[in-house]
């Protein structure tokens, strides 16, 4: 990662997306920010932090634009370095011209995420907070936005730090016990250590299990419709997304590809996938579609297996093997004359995962929304903090398993050396989580997901 080598560089980049708008903002950060900006903007003799100055950006006596310039002194800015933000008129031509001027006077173009990277390197934020900046700018629902904001404010980091503190303290006391030269030292008794480690374990466990909701919050809840051809999957899909997106015809085998669409519901993004009807066919195009349908089942949060109430079908229920917990059977075409098949279904299907609806009657679809609601409720966990990132989840899971090992060993009165080893591993995971210990490749991966200017 190039910017690991250039903390002394003064960097610049547009902070607003390219295009025309009311204003565009250009960010400049680094030790020479003020010195460089003075070459293109007339500051008063005394420049104060967090003040906005009005004037012209000039180049060889010619005015480039009328702008507002804000100054943030070192230690009091987002990055922690001296920073200047130029708000110019929102035109890509003006932005380009100002950027070129800054470059010609000694700035370097910022890399992706470099401003946030500097904030992290300068200790303004930890790695968990840096990741939340990305989630914040990418969030597509209010709930994702609020969760990311709480992370940015440090709520998740604080929980991790509290766990880290408990481990450090317990480790110190255990190690004092191991070290015989400190024999007369007053150390914590085992019950006290067990209680501290126990509560650290509870916190990490809650955070780990919050990830199932976190995935839904930061991404979406995925609902996949499967079933035989002609049962009404596409009709239901269109009604659920409130759009005529998938083609509906009385011909079996209409849908051949995946059709996908998302809607926002109660602050969550719900992603629906309509699939090709599954049946025995020799048509190679349909076969590809069917194999795509099967692949979708794996990462669905809810599978809606649609059955036609008016017709005895021959759906191969083996397809859903292993997915029982997330499958709901939906008897569709409730509005037309039912056959013995529908009586059979209502008698034999387990009540808790069987519903009857009609794609022709939008009101009946409330039953599907109720299922989605229930799934969201089930995903809620004790803790109000939700883990959103896979990196955080994986490290928290390893943190949890190390603490759990230590706790078991403590309860069974194992030797303190053994317990200390587990706790040291746990501590390592917590350092990695907060970015107190880092690997260049991990950092590169995190910050390169950002856009330029962030
Ligand atoms: N009466 C009635 N007809 C329905 C209902 N749902 C779907 N249909 C009709 O059933 C036919 C098939 O509907 P689709 O939505 O295309 O079925 P599909 O499951 O997507 O079919 P494939 O794409 O071929 O797998 C169409 O003629 C729909 O109008 C319903 O609830 N009641
Ligand atoms: Mg279809």
Question: In CATH terms, what is the architecture of the largest domain?
Answer: 3-Layer(aba) Sandwich
CATH level 1 class label of the largest domain: Alpha Beta
Task: Tell me, rounded to a whole number, the average pLDDT.
Answer: 91
Shape descriptor: flat
Low-confidence stretches: none
Q: Which ligands occur here? A: guanosine-5'-triphosphate, magnesium ion
**With helices defined by DSSP (H or I, 4 residues minimum), what is the helix count?**
15
Largest sheet: 6 strands, mixed
Q: State the end-to-end distance.
A: 16 Å
Helix content: 40-55%
Give keywords.
454 residues, six-stranded mixed beta sheet, binds guanosine-5'-triphosphate, 43% helix, 3 domains, alpha/beta, 18% strand, Gyrase A, domain 2, flat, Four Helix Bundle (Hemerythrin (Met), subunit A), Rossmann fold
Structural write-up:
With 454 residues, the protein is an alpha/beta fold. The chain has three domains: 2-125, Probable tRNA modification gtpase trme, domain 1 (Gyrase A, domain 2, 2-Layer Sandwich); 132-210 and 385-435, tRNA modification GTPase MnmE domain 2 (Four Helix Bundle (Hemerythrin (Met), subunit A)); 219-379, Rossmann fold, CATH 3.40.50.300. Helices cover 43% and strands 18% of the residues. The protein contains 15 helices and twelve strands. The strands form two sheets. A six-stranded mixed sheet has the order 3-4-5-2-1-6. The chain has a six-stranded mixed sheet with strand order 8-9-7-10-11-12, sandwiched between helices. Strand 8 and strand 9 (268-274) form a beta hairpin. Helix 4 (127-138) packs antiparallel against helix 5, helix 6 (155-178) runs antiparallel to helix 14 (416-434) and helix 7 packs antiparallel against helix 13 (390-411). The model has no long low-confidence stretch (mean pLDDT 91). The structure holds guanosine-5'-triphosphate (GTP) and magnesium ion. Magnesium ion is lined by residues 233-234, 246, 254-255, 274.
